[in-house]
Amino acid sequence: MDKKFLKTYFFCAAATLLIAFALWNYKDIAGYLAIVLRALRPIIIGAAIAFIFNRPYERIKKILAWMIPKINPRVNDIISLIILYLLALGIIAGIIIFIIPQLGNSVNLFVSNLNEYYDNIKNFTVKALNFGGHNWWEEFGIEQKLLDFAKNLPTILTDLFTNIVNISSGIIGTVTDSIVGIVISIYALSQKKKLVNHGKRILKAGLKKKYYDRTVELLGMISTTFSSFISGQLTEALILGILCFIGMTVFGFKYAVLISTITALFNLIPFVGPIIGAIPCAFILFLDNPIRAIWFIVFIIVLQQLESNIIYPKVVGNSVGLPAIWVLSAVIVSGSLFGILGMLLAIPTTSVIYELIRRWVNRKNGAPVSDNNVNKEKNKTIIIHSSVPPKNQGKPD
């Protein structure tokens, strides 16, 4: 019997047995995986922080090299790392000192005005429904429904507070892991070249050259895609939140800090996030003043147009490199399967899959898989145009 056939037969049989064993013992395996992931959580947190910080770290290094041309590369690395983490610490301190207290004040003001908001909704609805000579307010029993809702509101708020406390306890429980993760991220960034070289040596030892080259190219594409997308989305959400706060303050809207925070957080979700985030914000203002809520909707539409046509192309890029139907489908499906995290990572993941399918189709059809010049540009931005200048550019942006 052919040795190649025997090898294939053995591999298929072993794979079948392994899959059957995993399906039969999936609960035990899931439990062991949970234990392993719990043990690895500080490392995962550290890797995630290092991955997000890598782009600003490289930017700071480039700025220092431009300002001090003769600076020692190792000194540049150390100073850039210190500046990066001091900036991050300053941002966190600013959020704790300025944003969180104002956020708490907005929430307290909202809760204290709930009775007034009930009267506003009642008066607005009575005026809207009392037409044609009928008192639709009483016929539909709307007042009783609102009273029932008002009765249940303390219970709803209590449950919400309990959930927030539980979440906060979970967050406090991860403080130690986060501190260890920060230390790991500092080490990972300072030893980045060494770690990359170690990884390449391991891959080279275990793979043939053809597969090694493809694997390195794929990992580089994934890294660039996710790094560009995440840093761009974070920057864009921050800018939009600041602009929303400034606009709401200028036009005299209530709950500027609360609504700006909600707007910024929801804007992290691509495509549908701004729409979803506008709904609770408009509802909060509607409770206070329905007319002001309408003006807020006009304001947020104008702000979103400004974001879509000016901020997004400059900060994130002119194109995600995907058809709109792919983007929408990716966000919906990923959100259904994996929740908020799935929605956040849907576009870069789909972009990588899209690029791999494109290359596979080109390879099967005998077309060039990728042009070298085009590939260099695409490596900068698989799904979005990178805001980081090319390596041969002397002066930073």
Q: What are the SSEs and their pairings?
A:
Elements: H1 3-24, H2 26-67, H3 73-112, H4 114-129, H5 136-139, H6 142-173, H7 175-190, H8 192-206, H9 209-251, H10 256-266, H11 273-288, H12 290-315, H13 324-364, H14 372-380
Helix pairs in contact: 2-3, 2-7, 2-9, 3-10, 8-9, 9-10, 9-12, 9-13, 10-11, 11-12
Q: For the terminal residues, how far apart are their CA atoms?
A: 65 Å
Helix content: over 70%
Beta-strand percentage? under 5%
Q: Uncertain runs with pLDDT below 50, 5 residues or more?
A: 371-397
- Main beta sheet, described? none
Q: What gross morphology would you assign? A: globular
Sketch the topology as an H/E string, one letter per element.
HHHHHHHHHHHHHH
Radius of gyration: 27 Å
Number of H- or I-type helical stretches: 14
> How many E strands?
0
Could you give a quick summary of the protein structure above?
With 397 residues, the chain is mostly helical.
Describe this structure in words.
The protein is an all-alpha fold. It contains 14 helices and no strands. The chain has helices at residues 3-24, 26-67, 73-112, 114-129, 136-139, 142-173, 175-190, 192-206, 209-251, 256-266, 273-288, 290-315, 324-364, 372-380. Helix 9 (209-251) packs antiparallel against helix 10 and helix 11 (273-288) runs antiparallel to helix 12. The longest helix has 43 residues, at 209-251. The protein is globular and about 85 Å long. The relative contact order is 0.08.
